[in-house]
Amino acid sequence: MTNRTIRVWTLIHKWTSLICTVFMLLLCLTGLPLIFHDEIEALTAEHTLPPMPAETPLKSLDEAVATALATYPGERPLFLSFDEDRPVVNVTTGPGARPPVSQMHISAIDLRSTRILADLNDDKGFMHVMLRLHVDMFAGLPGELFLGFMGFLLFVATVSGVVIYAPFMRKLSFGTVRAGRSRRLKWLDLHNMLGIVTLMWVVVVGLTGVINTLSVPLVAYWRSNELAAMIAPYQGKPVPERFASVDAAVRTAMEAAPGMRPQFIAFPGVRFSSNHHYAVWLKGATPATNRILTPALIDAETGAFTDMRSMPWYMLALRLSQPLHFGDYGGLPMKILWAVLDVLTIVILGSGLYLWFARRRTAQDHAAAPGLRTTVGEAAE
Question: pLDDT tens digit string along 330-361?
Fold first, then answer.
C-alpha cells in the first residue's frame, strides 16, 4: 500500500469517525441499560401478577379487549400482544386507526381475571428515556434515519481503520501497548488494539442498528407490495363496523399454521394489517424459528381465513437484526458479553476523541512505526 493510498484511507477514517463519534457515544451509553431491559423491568415492575390458583381458567381475548375499551370509552383496538411467560396480554387502543403514540393507551391485562395491571403508557421513567434517545433522540422518523446514517458512517470508519491498521501491524506485535512511551502513544496503541478486538461486534451491531432504523420505510414497502397482493380481492372495502371474535381469528390462524403460536395481532386499519383484516402474526415454537414471524390474514367481518405468506427477505432481515443488535437471544451470558463489548467501544470512541484533541493541541505529527508518517490512531484523532 502506497503512502498516498494510506493518506486517502486516513482521511476517510478521520472524518467519518469525527462526524459519528458523539452520536455513537450516545447510542453506546443508552444501549448499555437497554441490553438488560428485561432484568431492569423485572426489578422495577409494579404490575406484578396477584397470586391465584394454578388451575385458574383463562378468560377470552375478546373479554380482555372489552375491558380495555370499557376503560377508554370512544377508543378502538389497535394491537394485542402476548407476554412470553405470563398469562398477560397487552391491548393497545386509540381514538383512530393510526393515532400518534401520545394518544395511545397500552393496557397490560391479566387473562385470569381481565383486570388491568397497568397502563404501560404511564411508564415515562428512565428506561423510556433511554429507549427514545437510542431509537430516535425524541425526533421521530427523521431522528431514526439520522442515527441510521451515523451507524453507516461508523461502519465506514471501522473498515477504513482496519485498512490503515494493516501496515501499522507490520512493525509491531499484535496487542502491543507501548506504556513506557508518551500518554498519547499509549492511548494510540490501546485505541488500535481494542478496535481490532471489537471489530466484528462493532460491524454486527452497527449494521443491525442501521437496519432497525429502516423499519418504517421497510414496512411501508411491504404493505405496498406483499400485503397489497394478499388483500387484492378486498381492495376498496372499508373497515368493518363490527369485528369478528379475536379468539376465533387466532384459532383460525393457528389451524392454518400447525405448530406456530401468536406473537401479536394487528387490528384492521393499522400499519401491520389491512382495512378489512386481522393480521395474526405467528412465530415458530422452537428457538430457531421463534424470531421469524408469518402474518395470517383473517377477514375481520366474517372470521374467514384469507391468506398467509412467508415474509420477504428484507422483513426477515429487519426481524432478525433486533436480537442481534441487543444480544438478547442467548440469555444473560450473551447480554453480559454484549455489555462488555459495549463498554470497550465507549473506550475506543472516547480515546479517538482524546487523540484528535491531543494532536490538535500539540500540533505534532508522531509516527507509530519507522517510515510511516500516518497511523490508524492519528486517523481516529
Answer: 788 999 999 999 999 999 999 988 888 887 77
Question: Could you give the CA distance from residue 216 to residue 267 in angstroms, rounded to a whole number?
Answer: 18
pTM (2 decimals)?
A: 0.81
Residue 8 carries which side chain, given as an amino acid letter? V
pLDDT along the chain (381 residues), means of 10: 83 93 95 88 69 88 96 94 89 90 89 86 75 92 95 94 78 68 80 88 94 92 89 84 93 93 93 91 80 91 92 89 83 91 94 84 51 42 40
Q: Is the dihedral of CA 34, 40, 46, 48 positive or negative?
A: positive
Q: What is the C-alpha separation between 340 and 346, in angstroms, rounded?
A: 10
- Which ranges of the chain would DSSP assign to H, the alpha helix? 3-35, 37-44, 61-71, 126-135, 140-169, 183-197, 199-213, 215-222, 228-230, 246-256, 313-326, 331-362, 376-380
Angle between helices 331-362 and 199-213 (to 10 degrees): 100
C-alpha cell at 226: 406483499
- Name the grid cell of 206: 452497527
| Tens digit of each residue's pLDDT (9 = 90 or more) over 168-198 | 767 766 666 776 677 778 888 888 888 888 9
Contact criterion met (CB below 8 Å) for 378 and 359 = yes
Q: Are strands 305-308 and 88-94 parallel, antiparallel or unpaired?
A: unpaired
Output the nine-digit C-alpha cell for 280: 395474526
**Contact indicator for 36, 335 with CB cutoff of 8 Å:** yes
Measured between alpha carbons, how far is 257 from 294 in angstroms, rounded to an integer? 9
Nearest one of 211, 368, 282 to 376, comparing CA atoms: 368
> Where do the structural domains in the chain lie, given as residue ranges?
3-19+133-212+332-380
Residue recorded with cell 406473537: 263
Q: Work out the percent of the chain whose per-residue pLDDT is above 90.
A: 49
Under DSSP, is residue 89 helix (H, G, I), strand (E, B) or coil?
A: strand
The answer to whether the beta carbons of residues 17 and 11 sit under 8 Å apart is no
The whole-angstrom separation of Cα 227 and Cα 220 is 10
